[in-house]
Design goal:
Largest sheet: 8 strands, mixed
Helix content: 40-55%
Oligomer: single chain
Strand content: 5-15%
Shape: globular
Number of helices: 34
Number of strands: 26
Strand order of the largest sheet: 4-3-5-2-6-7-1-8
């Protein structure tokens, strides 16, 4: 090629090569055995030019190459680089990768429970660790040149997202920021904000998948393409993608009317031939079973595969189903290799714990090439699954969606069982962003020519809606930033109140709020024009129709108010009747899912009342725990009793009754039906409506009849225009309040937090008190509660195990509210301390309400959860794993995770507790040692 160039062109090309070879990028590119993609080169060049970068690219596209170049650049310049990740597993993985490249001497690791070579020039850490360093003014920040924030889209996370913004805002100006994100639809907006707070930032967006993705639907024995063949499945062009007509016909047939013997067509029974044809067609459509899916993928050469099941129990059940079906995906050599790796990785786990952890069943699945992966698993087990999958020794993984969050486990195929998942509150359709994140795992760069996303057929599936999910790249980044008590004292300590307020105004949350105000202002202007038109439409020649319409609304409002008062009175009467219930009362539940005969096991009253349960919470009145005639034990709420309830009969509840035992429930329910099944409940009679005797209503009706507009022939037409005017005016006022509310929202929340902290003497103007300095060291959701417990000496005199139990209430949060029994807590001092913690929380909750600090907005202190106190106490008391897990009733992975979070907070308490005349710091350190044993201590790094 160079022979075809003129001497001048060859000289120019040589100069370009010389310039490129003189850059830091040239030797970095030489480290890889493949050439970099254009977006990677563009980002690296921007970094070398001294700019910050935001790289938004699909999962598996290689955006971490840009982060690794920042590491390379920092080492070449003799400066430090911090590489931050959202989760410890990802930190461990990145640490291992960087050690392989640069050696253990140059790379360190800092997570909540690991510290390896923290003084190294390159340190991998979780984002929280860097945030804590910034607030503490750590010496480790000296010489810091680059910070890589991997998976920066985590700032949308409503629980932890604020940490990312804190880091971005507070990093020294001299630090170059490298932000790596999944494909988001508002990357430019995020880049504009980064430009504002960090200086010159290059935004690089790539939607190109290096491995094209094919979308399929598996129904019955067939696997259908989601889009027609001529469509552009890889997303490399701009071709229009049409839904496969075969799938559309399938859906139409599936959703058509099923045969019913009572159906008549033209007055006659449906002919036998029609029914037979329908049965044959329907026989071709079903949702394949899990073993069948894996077998089919194996036959078509589409393994390894990750099947996403939005349930931990579902993942474990899937593995068992495959084992029972006799699936074997590994040959003898692979089985031997698997056993060798597993035994090596688990050699530190004591033999007596292996049985408790389900080791042998887990190993059998691994040897066959099948495994589960979810947060309930022991971390060591999860890491082994990840390693074996990457090595190709596990070929089918059944995982929850947490696997999609950054762990490097690419597959040839991804299977989605359903397009609905539980979001913590309800079953909801997965979003296009979630679909993209999950299916992004399909297609291994450098291994696969193409990736495959397979959705299993479900009844009532809409192929068009699925195509919309697969074809949409809408994943907007939304800030979840909210000030906290810890953040407030740290900011005031470093910058003073005024400067702190200004800093918070620079958050991405405020940036987005201010931008949204522009659109709302335009809507207000349009509404004002509409109101003028409505005023003309409601004009009446007989009088002031606006005044007449106001009388009509006042009448309606008064009638509604009286109806609400009546309902409130009925609820109060019902609540009073519930307070009279005693264990053993037989009642009739009038409405709701559990309507019918029921036996009261626990009246659900607050502490200090007869038969009180739990002793700590009483938000919505009594919540009786009952056994229904259908053998269900449920805690009911006020909503189940719209009318007063009375005991129909009395029964003795045996002391041996165990609500968790099916046999025990069956026996008592049978006795309940025998005792009271024949008794008919009394019907509640409604009284006279309060509106009938209300003077205000009578006056308003008289005023309406006397108004001149009342006699207008077009009265109801005018009224419709008046109602539209009223609704639009109300909407306009709401928009104006939103504009007012969105301006300086973060700063106003900060002001309220500062006012509360000043009231409690954590702050005095710009001065942080000693108690405030302690609070500055306590990071967590219940930071202020922990600070108050230290100040009031709640934990003084507790043993290490008792302290662990109390601290667990600050971190633990049950996955689902337990409607059955109150949590078990240690007796003695620990029980008293836990009770005192809940009392303090109640005081803080009232104070937050007074200062308008709203938990619903993500600010404030939730109620401490005592559900892990007994498990933490037992484990810190050196009890065996088998006994602790059995009593805790939770998977080993959850147990380990909660223990590590308790250890993390105990470490903070040890650092923050008073040094003089206090046993808390010493016992917190002892509690850490007591918890950090056995399965909790196993770690793959360091």
């Amino acid at each position: 090629m160079t022979e075809d160039l003129s001497p001048a062109e060859r000289y120019a090309a040589a100069r370009v090569r010389a310039v490129e070879e003189a850059t830091a990028l040239a030797p970095f590119r030489a480290m890889y055995d493949f050439d970099l993609d254009p977006f990677q080169i563009e980002a690296c060049q921007a970094l070398e030019a001294g700019k910050g970068v935001l790289v938004a690219a699909p999962t598996g596209s290689g955006k971490t190459i840009v982060g690794e170049f920042a590491v390379h650049l920092a080492l070449e310049q003799g400066r430090k680089c911090f590489y931050t990740t959202p989760i410890k597993a990802l930190s461990n993985q990145k640490y291992t990768d960087l050690v392989k490249r640069y050696g253990a001497a140059k790379v360190g690791l800092l997570t909540g429970d690991n510290s390896v070579n923290a003084g190294a020039p390159v340190v991998v850490m979780t984002t929280e660790v860097l945030r804590n360093m910034l607030y503490a003014g750590s010496q480790s920040l000296t010489g810091l040149g680059h910070v890589v924030m991997d998976e920066v889209h985590y700032l949308s996370d409503r629980f932890r997202g604020a940490v990312w913004e804190e880091v971005i805002i507070h990093l020294p100006e001299s630090v170059t920021l490298v932000s790596l994100s999944a494909t988001v639809s508002n990357a430019e907006e995020f880049g504009d904000w980064l430009d504002t707070v960090r200086g010159d930032t290059e935004v690089i967006v790539s939607e190109h998948r290096p491995v094209p993705l094919w979308q399929h639907v598996m129904a019955g024995r067939r696997m259908y393409d989601l889009f027609e063949e001529e469509s552009d499945h890889g997303g490399r062009g701009v071709a229009r993608r049409e839904v496969n007509p075969d799938l559309v016909r399938l859906a139409r047939m599936e959703n058509s009317r099923t045969y019913n013997p009572r159906d008549r067509r033209r007055g006659k029974m449906v002919r036998e031939a029609d029914r037979e044809r329908e049965r044959r067609q329907r026989g071709r459509i079903w949702t394949p079973g899990r073993p069948e899916v894996i077998d089919r993928l194996d036959a078509e050469g589409l393994l390894p595969a990750i099947t996403f099941i939005f349930s931990r129990a579902g993942c474990e059940a899937a593995v068992q189903q495959c084992l029972y079906a006799g699936l074997r995906l590994n040959d003898e050599d692979a089985r031997a290799k698997v056993r060798e790796i597993v035994e090596e990785r688990t050699s530190s786990i004591p033999g007596e714990d292996l049985h408790v952890l389900g080791y042998y069943e887990w190993l059998e699945g691994l040897e066959r090439g099948i495994a589960a992966h979810h947060a309930g698993m022991l971390p060591t087990f999860k890491e082994v699954v990840e390693e074996l999958f990457v090595r190709g020794l596990v070929k089918a993984v059944f995982a929850t969606e947490t696997l999609a969050l950054g762990i490097n486990m690419p597959a040839r195929s991804v299977v989605l069982e359903k397009l609905v998942k539980w979001n913590g509150e309800q079953h909801a359709d997965i979003t296009p962003g979630e679909y993209t994140q999950l299916t992004g795992r399909a297609g291994r760069r450098g291994i696969d020519v193409e990736g495959h996303a397979v959705v299993l057929w479900q009844r009532a599936m809409d192929p068009g809606a699925l195509a919309g999910l697969a074809g949409t790249r809408t994943y907007p980044l939304r800030s979840s930033f909210k000030p906290s008590y810890n953040m407030a004292v740290n900011l005031v300590q470093q910058f003073g109140r005024h400067r702190s307020r200004e800093l918070l105004e620079t958050s991405f949350a405020q940036f987005q709020a201010d931008k949204s105000v522009v659109g709302i202002s335009r809507q207000v202007q349009r509404n004002e024009e509409g109101l003028q038109g409505y005023r003309e439409g409601m004009t009446c020649h007989l009088g002031d129709f606006e005044e007449y319409a106001r009388l009509r609304r006042d009448l309606k409002d008064r009638e509604t108010e009286l109806a609400k008062q009546g309902a409130a009175q009925r609820r109060a009467e019902a609540a009073t009747s519930l307070e009279r219930l005693k264990p053993g009362d037989v009642i009739h539940v009038p409405t709701g899912k559990f309507a019918g005969l029921a036996l009261v096991l626990d009246p659900g009253l607050p502490a200090g009342r007869t038969g009180g349960h739990r002793g700590f919470e009483y938000h919505d009145g009594p919540r009786p725990l009952v056994l229904t005639a259908e053998r269900q034990v449920k805690r009911l709420a006020s909503i189940d009793f719209p009318v007063p309830v009375e005991a129909l009969e009395r029964m003795r509840v045996p002391k041996s009754f165990n609500p968790r035992s099916p046999q025990s429930r069956r026996d008592l329910a049978s006795a309940l039906r025998t005792k009271a099944g024949h008794i008919a409940p009394e019907r509640h009679r409604k009284g006279r409506s309060p509106a009938a005797d209300d003077r205000e209503i009578s006056g308003l009706r008289a005023a309406l009849r006397a108004h001149p507009c009342h006699g207008c022939d077009e009265r109801e037409d005018h009224a419709r225009w008046a109602e539209r005017h009223h609704r639009l005016q109300r909407d306009t006022r709401q928009l104006e309040r939103r504009i007012e509310g969105r301006t300086n929202t973060i700063a106003r929340t900060f002001d309220r937090i500062v006012a509360l902290l000043t009231e409690m003497d954590y702050l005095r103007g710009d001065e942080v008190t000693e108690d405030g300095k302690r609070l500055a060291r306590l990071y967590g959701e219940l930071d202020l509660l922990a600070g108050e417990c230290l100040r009031e000496g709640v934990w003084e005199g507790l043993s290490p195990a008792e302290l662990a139990a109390c601290v667990s209430a600050l971190v633990y949060e049950a996955r689902q509210s337990d409607d059955a029994l109150p949590p078990k807590v240690p007796a003695g001092k620990a029980k008293a301390a836990l009770g005192e913690m809940v009392r303090i929380w109640g005081r803080l909750d009232a104070l937050e309400e007074e200062f308008r600090i709203n938990q619903a907005e993500g600010v404030g202190q939730r109620e401490p959860d005592l559900g892990f106190a007994w498990a933490a106490y037992e484990w810190a008391s050196d009890k065996g794993l088998d006994a602790v897990l059995r009593e805790a009733g939770m998977p080993a992975g959850d147990f380990v995770r909660w223990c590590k979070q308790v250890i993390d907070v105990l470490g903070q308490i040890a650092a923050a507790a008073p040094r003089e005349n206090s046993t808390v710091a010493k016992n917190a350190r002892k509690a850490v040692d007591a918890l950090l044993r056995g399965v909790v201590a196993y770690s793959s790094v360091g």
